[in-house]
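Weekly structure sync, notes
Attendees: PL (lead), two postdocs, one rotation student
Agenda item 3: pending single-chain targets
PL asked that the sequence for the first pending target be pasted directly into the notes so everyone works from the same version. It is reproduced below exactly as submitted, 204 residues in total.
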Amino acid sequence: MPALLERSVRSARRLASVIAALMARMPGRARRCAGHRRRQWHGFRNVCAGLLRSPARWGVFARHVAILTMLSLLWEFAQMPLYTLWQTGTTREIVYAALHCTLGDAMIGGASLLVALLIVGGAGWPRERWGAVLAATVAIGLGYTVFSEWLNVGLRASWAYSDLMPVVPPFGTGLTPLLQWLILPPVAYRLATRGIAQAEERSA
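Predicted structure, written out during the meeting:
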């Protein structure tokens, strides 16, 4: 075995020993929390592995993100007059903002579905627990949207609403961002899961 590989193996073993010793000294509650985090991580890996093992399920996930991205691009341009950038920005800045936000929407949408699968999904998804996964996906997307708008509009002032934007209490969240995550994910999810039973039968 090459010397570099031997040193790497010894370092990994020492690190494992240190972690084991620290875990042994943890209070019971801390050990339980660490164990819970490990189970969450293993669950997340299992969800990802399940998607990759099933071409049909992976296709549903990929289609959901792709459809959501296209719908979000249209939505971002449509709601742009409700932001001050529409009056103050150049055409290039407006286009860049819409594309940048669409990319963020795609990431949020994909992450929301993955987390929903981790929390309420199962081996039979999407034929089973279809509605539970959709509800969790929408709830996660809405929750992040409320936080993001509060952070970027209220605190960081990364962007601003125009006087045309209706806002929703208690955090003054813009109405159209909320509607975006109430409407678009269910539409994308419905279209993405259409015909999944037939697809799984063909891939079996």
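Discussion points:
- The chain has two domains: 1-53, 55-203.
- The chain has a mean pLDDT of 82.
Action: rotation student to compare against the earlier draft before next sync.
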